[in-house]
Amino acid sequence: MAGIFALRVLWTLPRAHQAFVFHEICGLCHHYLRSKPEDASEISSEELVSEVWAKLIGSITMPDPNDVAERSNFPDPSDWTIDPHVPENDGRVVWLIREIGGPRALAHRCEDIRRRRWGRATPGLGRPLVQRSELPDVETDPDEGGLGPADAVNIWRGVLITAERAFRPDDDVCKLLRMLAKVPGVLDGSDGSRWPMGRLVTILNAEFSPPSWSDDRVENAKKRLLNWVQRLMRQNNLDATDLEAVFARVARQQVQQQMPAMDSSEANLQS
Amino acid sequence: MMTRSRFYRLALDANERQANVRNVDVLPIPTLDERATLYLRAIHGNRDFTEEERSNARNILLNSMAAEIAAQVIPAEQNPVGEHGADRGSPLAQYAAQYWQSVQRKEAIKVAPIARRRTSILALTAAFGLVLMQIDNKGDSLNDTCGQK
């Protein structure tokens, strides 16, 4: 949420102000790495700069399905001093540089880089000592079209993983998604946005009842899912293609996150 | 042949719905393409960018969004419902097994790991750094050899 607010602030700045922020962050990254030789030994300044901007510009916010008013607790932009001519006197610029270029924020970005490179550290054990293997060869990138059956599952799994943060795991929306992730072909043959309610009710009743499922219950879950997806798209200004690509990646990254742990346990078994 | 997922259809439906929420956010937010341009300007400065650079930037940003979501996900072992699925013997699992058998018969899964396509600036920087180190090492060993002689 903080990231998306910072992105909004950056986006409202005039180009000269943006260029000033870009330049300042570059300098702060250089300075930070000079003061941290242990970080500088494995992370280049360009890499850190890239990480800072990927994190900020690639921010995403999750709508709370119960929060209809979509309130935010961030500073009111109208309270900031705006100087269209001198960026360093502009309150938005000052706030943004402090928010993303401070030593603490940069330390987090260094840790993000290490985590991506070596995997997540386990308390007391550190990072996995084994080299990570390649990703399982079952994916097709949605960006390039030609979606295969594996992507159909990846996308629904990504939606489910994300929805479980917003809804309770026993919510009807999650049950519906769990079924779609497991059996994406259940919607095959249905016409456009109309779903085969009879078939869905039968499967959901077999798996997730009591209480028993009806057409209305499925429709209600679908409607809430649609509302949530709509707000996700609107709050992040993403279209259907973008969101599809994000969800496929969420599922892939979860597989990647689980792999170091699997590799470590295999190494332990062999030793 | 380009096909679209069922989720894409659902997202289109969601997009067509009348917004029933009051938007209190006063600051606009860039689209993915605008974000990609912003990212490229932050890294390379003001210049024209190729379509490949834009595509790579979009990839980096989509991965960043996915990482942000994945980082906040409850681990499967803490999830009371289990790992996004049903028991092996359940009707849903049986239905899923039938579905997958039919899919495997119809079509071989296309192999395209995402990492292979990503020619990022970071990878290029790292590769360039390695080349420089090797040159440097060769220089050192030459110097050592000359010194010994």
Oligomer: heterodimer
Radius of gyration of chain B (CA) equals: 25 Å
Largest sheet of chain A: none
Structural class estimated from helices and strands of chain B:
mainly alpha
The global form of chain A is: globular
Overall pLDDT score of chain A: 82
Radius of gyration of chain A: 23 Å
Largest interface: A-B, 109 and 85 residues
Shape assignment of chain B: extended
Blueprint of the fold:
The complex is a heterodimer of chains A (271) and B (149).
Chain A (H helix, E strand, L loop, with lengths): L1 H11 L2 H21 L1 H4 L4 H13 L33 H11 L1 H16 L30 H18 L5 H11 L14 H11 L7 H22 L3 H31 L1
Helix pairs in contact in A: 2-4, 2-5, 4-6, 7-8, 7-11
Chain B lengths: L5 H11 L15 H13 L6 H21 L19 H16 L7 H4 L3 H28 L1
Write structural notes for this entry.
The complex is a heterodimer of chains A (271) and B (149). Chain A is mainly α and 271 residues long. Chain A has two domains: 2-60 and 76-118, no CATH class; 142-270, no CATH class. Chain A has helices spanning 2-12, 15-35, 37-40, 45-57, 91-101, 103-118, 149-166, 172-182, 197-207, 215-236, 240-270. In chain A, α2 (15-35) crosses α4 (45-57), α2 (15-35) packs parallel to α5 and α7 packs antiparallel against α8 (172-182). Chain B has 149 residues and is an all-alpha fold. Chains A and B meet through α1, α2, α4, α7 and α8 of A and α1, α2, α3, α4 and α5 of B.
Short note summarizing the structure:
Chain A has 271 residues and is mainly alpha-helical. In chain A, 62% of the residues lie in helices and 0% in strands.
What key phrases describe this protein's structure?
A: 271 residues, mainly alpha, 11 helices, B: 149 residues, 6 helices, disordered C terminus
